[in-house]
Amino acid sequence: MLPADRKDHIVQQIFWNVYGVLSVNAILGEKLTKRQKQQPVVKAIGDIFLEIVPKFAPFVEYGGHQLWGKYEYEQARTAHPAFAKFADVSGRMGIDSR
User: Fold this and answer.
1) What CA–CA distance (Å, rounded) separates 25 from 29?
2) Distance, CA of 79 to chain centre
3) How many domains, in total, are found in the chain?
């Protein structure tokens, strides 16, 4: 797998700011779910996005870092065949389980 001295760095680069993204996404999901529970056919959600979009900085930061994350991911796959196999198998598991 990945060398212990590089593992934290590689994981951090690949999943850059994931907790910030999840935090904002959870708030958005809660508000959208609450709106849908009020009425199954939702007529508008723009007000929710107007409230949440100013908090989207983690998404922008994550998106801006994707190139570096992809680079680290590809470097790790190339340098560590066991990691490449793990990534392939776990990636297929996500697709097959749907």
Assistant:
1) 6
2) 24
3) 1
